[in-house]
C-alpha cells in the first residue's frame, strides 16, 4: 500500500526529498532514490527531488516491499461524547492526532478506527474527520467529524471562530493584570524551524486569558483561543514573559518542573463548546485535568 501524505502548512517550502523522508520514515538518500525511480507523485505528477512543496499538495509514495506494518493504535484515548455526526474525544498527552511527516507509532485517528468508529472522508486519508489538533504533549478535548457534512459545518464554524476552546495553563510568574488579550501575529521562527514565534509577517493570532490562581512563582490561567495557530498558546504566553511550566521548547530552566514532577507542558484543553451541526443545539463538554497535572497542582497549593 502506498504512503499518502498531505503537506502541512509548516512544511510549505521544504524540499520534496525532505518531506518524503519524513512521511515515509526513510533516510533522505533513500527518499531521493524513490523520487528518482519515479515512485513519488505530487498531485499525480512527477517532480525533481529539489522541488519545493506547497501546503495542501498530496504526496503518494510507492514503497513497494518497504511498506511499513500498520502502527499499533495508542491506548488511553477516551470518547466522552458520541452521536452519528461527531465524536468529542479526550486525548492523552503523548498521542499524535493524525499521521503526518515524522510521526512514528499509532495516532488518535488509528485508535478511533481500531475501535470500530466510522469517520468522515474529509479532509483526506491522513486525517479523516479532524477539525482541529492538539500538540503531542498537550492533553484534552477534540471534536472529530463522522460524516463529510458534519466536517464541512464544523470546519466552517472553526473558521468563523464559533467553536469555544478553553485550556488550563500553569505558567511561570504572575501576570500584571487579572485578565488579558494577546493579539500578536505568529509565524515560523526563522532561527528554529520546529518552533513558532511572534513575527510582524506572521498570521493574525488572538489569545484571551484570566488568572485563576496565584502561587508566588507561578500562576494557573484559564485560556481561550480565538484563533488556532500552531503552538499558539505556548508562543503567545512565552512572548509576554510567562511561558508554560514544563514546556521544553518555549519554557525556562526546569527547576519548578522537577519539583512538581512534571514531564510535559502543563497545558490541558478542558472545555469544548459548539453548536451541533445537525440540531444546532449547544454541545458543551468539560473534563477534569489528568492525574499527572493534578498532582503537580496539589503540590503548588500545598
Mind explaining what this structure looks like?
The chain has 302 residues and is an alpha+beta fold. It has three domains: 3-66, Structural Genomics Hypothetical 15.5 Kd Protein In mrcA-pckA Intergenic Region, Chain A, CATH 3.10.290.10; 72-160, Pseudouridine synthase (2-Layer Sandwich), CATH 3.30.2350.10; 161-282 and 292-302, Pseudouridine synthase (2-Layer Sandwich). The protein has helices at residues 16-24, 28-36, 108-114, 148-159, 232-239, 255-260, 291-301, and strands spanning 3-6, 40-42, 58-61, 78-82, 86-91, 139-145, 164-172, 179-183, 186-188, 196-198, 206-214, 218-225, 267-275, 282-286. Strand 11 and strand 12 form a beta hairpin. Helix 1 (16-24) packs across helix 2 (28-36). The model has no long low-confidence stretch (mean pLDDT 91).
Amino acid at each position: 500500500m502506498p504512503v499518502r501524505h498531505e503537506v502541512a502548512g509548516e512544511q510549505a517550502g521544504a524540499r520534496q526529498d525532505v518531506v518524503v523522508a519524513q512521511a515515509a520514515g526513510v533516510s533522505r538518500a533513500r527518499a531521493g532514490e524513490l523520487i528518482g525511480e519515479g515512485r513519488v507523485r505530487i498531485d499525480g505528477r512527477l517532480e525533481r527531488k529539489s522541488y519545493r512543496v506547497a501546503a495542501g499538495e498530496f504526496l503518494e509514495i510507492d514503497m513497494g516491499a518497504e511498506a511499513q506494518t500498520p502502527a499499533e493504535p495508542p491506548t488511553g484515548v477516551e470518547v466522552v461524547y458520541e452521536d452519528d455526526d461527531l465524536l468529542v474525544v479526550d486525548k492523552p498527552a503523548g498521542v499524535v492526532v493524525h499521521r503526518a511527516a515524522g510521526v512514528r507509532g499509532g495516532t488518535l485517528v488509528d485508535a478511533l478506527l481500531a475501535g470500530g468508529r466510522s469517520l468522515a472522508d474529509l479532509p483526506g486519508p491522513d486525517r479523516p474527520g479532524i477539525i482541529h489538533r492538539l500538540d503531542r504533549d498537550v492533553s484534552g478535548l477534540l471534536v472529530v467529524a463522522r460524516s463529510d457534512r458534519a466536517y464541512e459545518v464544523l470546519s466552517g464554524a472553526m473558521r468563523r471562530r464559533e467553536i469555544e476552546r478553553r485550556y488550563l495553563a500553569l505558567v511561570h510568574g504572575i501576570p500584571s493584570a487579572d485578565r488579558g488579550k494577546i493579539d500578536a501575529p505568529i509565524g515560523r521562527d526563522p532561527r528554529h524551524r520546529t518552533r513558532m514565534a511572534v513575527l510582524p509577517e506572521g498570521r493574525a493570532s488572538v489569545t484571551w486569558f484570566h488568572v485563576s490562581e496565584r502561587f508566588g512563582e507561578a500562576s494557573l490561567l484559564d485560556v481561550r483561543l480565538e484563533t488556532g495557530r500552531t503552538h499558539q498558546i505556548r508562543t503567545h504566553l512565552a512572548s509576554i514573559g510567562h511561558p508554560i511550566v514544563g514546556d521544553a521548547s518555549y519554557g525556562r530552566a526546569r527547576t519548578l518542573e522537577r519539583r512538581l514532577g512534571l514531564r510535559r507542558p502543563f497545558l490541558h484543553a478542558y472545555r469544548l463548546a459548539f453548536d451541533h451541526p445537525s440540531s444546532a443545539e449547544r454541545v458543551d463538554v468539560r473534563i477534569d485535568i489528568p492525574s499527572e497535572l493534578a498532582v503537580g497542582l496539589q503540590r503548588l497549593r500545598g
